[in-house]
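Lab manual, section 2.4: Encoding a predicted structure.

Procedure: take the sequence of the chain (237 residues), apply the prediction step described in section 2.3, and record the output as structure tokens. A sample record is shown.
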Amino acid sequence: MSGSTGSGTKSKTDGRVERGNQTRRLVLGRTMDIASVEGLEGLSLGRIATELQLSKSGVFALFGSKEELQLATVRAAVAVFAERVVTPLADVPPGARRVRDLCRKWLAYSSERVFAGGCFFYAVSAEFDARTGPVHDAVARTRHDWTAYVEGALSEARAVGDLAGDLDVEQVAFEVIALMEAANAQSVLFGDPGVYARAERGITARLRASATDRGRDALDDPGTPDATDPAATPTQG
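Recorded output:
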């Protein structure tokens, strides 16, 4: 009898936990889209509760404060970004082609509007770059980590002989990230999908200029194209 009661209590608890997790995913899916368009300051517990027809007390129980909602949104966006850009290339060997394909994945992530406003981190960085506090620190950390990841991919390509031994990794990372972010910004502002193909051409040209013969051979391999072809990319409004 007591065992049956314990099992029933556990089942009810598990059900509540799962419902809480589902609500959390629902909320964060919405907050990521809002933040990518309006910024993290556009988030509030009351607004989310109203838009998703949830109780404000229920949303408060999950997040506790606007700041925690903002921080949870940043963490959720990091997970989505990793799933779309980083994880698909986990088994690709180090080299120039991996760097190029990493940039392609980023361009596809932006052009396919994984987040409604384009790159989530580009949008919220502009909002919090001159501020202080936990949200600024979380956003800055994500930007630092992404830059370090691109630099790491370039360093690996140099180590395997695809890129010149005297390559300035930090400079090249700065340039290719700038091209990606320029494509994101112009596509969002002007609704021009052609900027993604231009960014990819610029990135490939920069890599070729720094590549060895081995690296240029790798870059000549077209690989699997992502959404950087204007003919394959819907116009964004």
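Check your result against the sample. The two ends are 62 Å apart (CA to CA).
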